[in-house]
Amino acid sequence: MPGKLYFTIHKNEGQTKLEILKHRDIFFFSSTHHEAYIPFCHDFGPVNLAEVYLFCKFVEEKLLDPRLKSRKLVYYAEKDPPYRTNAAFLLGAFLVIVQRWSPDRVAKCFSGFEKNAFIPFQDATYEIPSFTISLLDCFKGLRNAMTIGWFNYHSFEVQKYQWLDNPANFDAHFVCPKFLAFRGPNNSDTRTRTIQEYSALFKKRGISAIIRLNEPTTYDREEFISHGLRHYDLYFDDCTTPPRDIIDKFFDICDSENGTIAIHCLAGLGRTGTLVALWVMKNLGWGARETIAWLRINRPGSVIGKQQQYLVACEQAMIRGEPLPEVEEEDFKSDALSAKVLGKQVSEASSKRRLSLMAPHLSSAL
Questions:
Q1: Which CATH number does 5-147 carry?
Q2: Model pTM?
């Protein structure tokens, strides 16, 4: 914001102290919001929707503080590339959400920094990234979600988001009004909620059906059905792209279900994110990259490996009015062994991250 809000990168705490002493007319400030991302693997962001909201409130308070009315505000971040990239994302998100700037205008604000000042975001794997999303993709995803009413800054209930997000509760996110993406129940894991607890949540939140994308051995679908919920199995292998018949069945279910659908795979990230992204792209015309960006802001870790390239190929097919590509096409084909290795890697990383985040159950109401 010219004349009021600025961003800088400091080498260390010593530089920050020197800058404060040198520029008494400037208010330097920072936070831990840009350090808040908890990685699965080599991923480092973007930070989630709760952090975005809390950061916007934080900056807004500074701008409205009468004691700072006549001073320039400079937000600073450290030289660590992931931290400074998330800081840029958060400041850009503030401009998109609160100031209502366009994504392109916001992205230009960061073009004056050195070429490699900010690094692109990668998927939640340990692999060398073959696909990334940019700050601009993230700003576009946020803008799209605001335009359609999926995210309203003035009515966003951050505590409810955090409560559902907590792995000690449901590890779930309303990525859009049509879908609740969540980590799949597992009767062999005592740290997950029971089917009865899931059913109570789903009924209270207007959910009419559950779609399971992983192995049917994890729980008995009849348990959900006995609670008056419809249940569908659409299995395909972990960390792979969905076959055409699965996509067709998925779209048919979405068309037939008037309520919100709870959808999960093992971790509720790759297969779940891919099918949700296809629905968003098909029904709303979003691009693949901004869709992936929005999903990751809302539910970190969504869409993994070749699923990313597949969604881009699907976007191009949708633009041309052609059938969606077959999974056998080389650009996004995952051989069985590679998919199995990647699936194991992601599953173990997800479980480890989940355990690190486990906290006492929050007492907030559903």
A1: 3.90.190.10
A2: 0.93
